[in-house]
Structure formats: C-alpha cells, structure tokens
Automatic annotation (TrEMBL):
Source organism of the structure: Ignatzschineria rhizosphaerae
Keyword Transmembrane: yes
Name this protein carries in UniProt: DMT family transporter
Record keyword RNA-binding present: no
Gene3D superfamilies: 1.10.3730.20
Length: 289
C-alpha cells in the first residue's frame, strides 16, 4: 500500500464516519434501536474481516482486558445512543459539532483522573473548543431543540472521550479490529432489551439503512482507518478523521437543506482548528531498546 492509497483510505473513513448522523436522521427507529442495529451489522462485518485476515477472536485477551472491553463497549453504547438522540432532537450539524468536543474531554479526564499535566497547547485546545461550542449553541435556552441536541452531542463527546482514555490505557496490545468486534458485541447485547419492541416497527428501508450504517459506516470505516495507519502516523490520520464534522454538515446541507448560520460556521471552524492544533504536535522519535 502506498502513502497516497493510505490517505485515500483515511479520507473515505472520515466520509463514512460523517454519514453516521445522516443515517441517524433518516432511520425512523429510536436511538437505542439504531444503535442496536448498527452494532449487529458491524459485528457481522467485523467478524467476516477477522476471519478473512485469519485473526483470532479471543486469543490475547486476559481477564483484566476482558473487563476493559466490557467497560469500553458500555461507553461506546452510551456514546452512540446519546449521539443519535442529539441528531433526532437537534439535527445532524449541532449533534456532530457537540461530539467533536471529545479531544477536550480526553485532556480533562487525563488531568482530573490521572493527574497528567496540562500543557499550554492543551489549555488553548480547551479554550478554542469552549468558544466554538458557545458560538454553535443556537439559543441559550433549554426550550430550544437545537440547544438540547447540542447538549446531547456534548454528552456523546464526553462519553467518547472516556472511551478513548479506556482504549488507550486498558486495551493496549489487543488488535484494533478485535477490539472493535468485542466492543460492538457488548453494545449489541446491552441494547437488545431496549430495541426488541421498537424493531417490529422498522420498515424495509430502515433495515437497509441500518445495514449500510453498520457495515460501511462502522465495520468498513474502522477497517480503512486502521489499515491507513500502516502508512500514516497517528497525528496525520487523526487530523483527517477530524474532518468528520465537515462532511456531516455538508451532507446535511445537501440532503436536508440544513443551511448552517455564519455563527455556527465560525464555531465549527474554531472546534476544527482546535482539533488540528492539538494533533499538530510532533511525535517523539522512538528509540530502539
């Protein structure tokens, strides 16, 4: 695989991630049902990829890492459910921008829980994300659906930030596709009781959209992102994936006529700049031991 092919893979993954909110808006089921259906199809797709690559399903997972997979899968379920609620309530754009605040939450969790020192760069990240979210907020009123949707998106970003910290500190050493398979499996099991009643009301087109969401926007996108890391460093790949809100807003604008305001665009630009700024730090050169 060439460097250019890896860049294309990362960009396609970002586009697929950006389509997640669109599917959440057009599928008629509840947030819990959408999350359950997404996880089911993702598990099937990831299982096929693992079998094709002849990778193990369980080998290398200790009791501690199994517990961490259970925790991270639970956080992934919360992240997806809150995100889809945000989409249903406030629309694709504000929910996605609320979620895009997750790098700031990762910094705060590392600082509060693990006592990591916050650098000047990270304080700037927190400031820019905060200003961006203030500008993106439609109205400072709990009676406004856009504001409520943004708050659900921020909660989705917070749970994703916790998920990222658990992944970084708890499941290192496990193959990324293996992690994704088991995390989606946990999501599927947790959401089954909440989705059972609602599933009977899904139409054929809803099931088709769920299949696209699970197979392409979850299983395939994760595979492409992980595959791109064979040629790209994590910083560059992360900056490309950070374009997800741009694609999401563009799709919502094109498909639903959800024209963003100038204030929202400025806020979005601040959040995206903060993500790019936080990812621009040069990675230390690893020395052979």
């Amino acid at each position: 695989m060439t460097h250019r092919q890896a860049l294309w893979m990362a960009h396609i993954a970002a586009v697929l991630f950006g389509l997640t909110g669109i599917f959440g808006a057009v599928i008629s089921g509840s947030a819990e049902t959408i999350t359950f259906g997404r996880a089911v199809f993702a598990v099937v797709g990831l299982l096929l990829i693992l079998l094709w690559q002849k990778k193990p399903l369980i080998r290398g997972i200790s009791l501690f890492k199994g517990a961490m997979l259970l925790l991270s899968g639970s956080l992934l379920a919360i992240h997806w459910v809150t995100f889809f609620i945000g989409v249903k309530v406030g629309g694709v754009a504000v929910a996605t921008l609320g979620f895009a605040s997750f790098p700031a939450f990762i910094t705060l969790v590392d600082w509060i829980v693990f006592k990591d020192r916050i650098t000047q760069r990270e304080w700037i990240l927190l400031l820019l994300v905060s200003l961006g979210l203030i500008l993106v907020t439609p109205q400072f009123s709990f009676g406004d659906s856009g504001t409520i949707g943004l708050l659900w998106g921020i909660l989705s970003g917070f749970s994703f930030g916790l998920l990222a910290v658990v992944n970084k500190r708890g499941v290192q050493g496990i193959d990324a596709m293996q992690v994704a398979f088991w995390q989606n499996g946990v999501v599927m099991i947790l959401l089954l009781p909440f989705a059972l009643f609602d599933m009977r009301f899904l139409s054929t087109i809803d099931w088709f959209y769920l299949a696209l969401l699970g197979i392409f926007c979850t299983g395939l996108s994760h595979y492409l992102f992980v595959k791109s890391l064979e040629q790209l460093n994590a910083r560059i790949a992360g900056m490309i994936i950070a374009l997800e809100p741009v694609y999401a807003i563009a799709f919502a604008w094109w498909l639903f006529g959800s024209t963003p305001t100038i204030r929202m665009l400025i806020g979005a630009a601040l959040i995206l700049f903060a993500i790019a700024f936080s990812s621009s730090k040069k990675e230390p050169i690893k020395k052979n031991r």
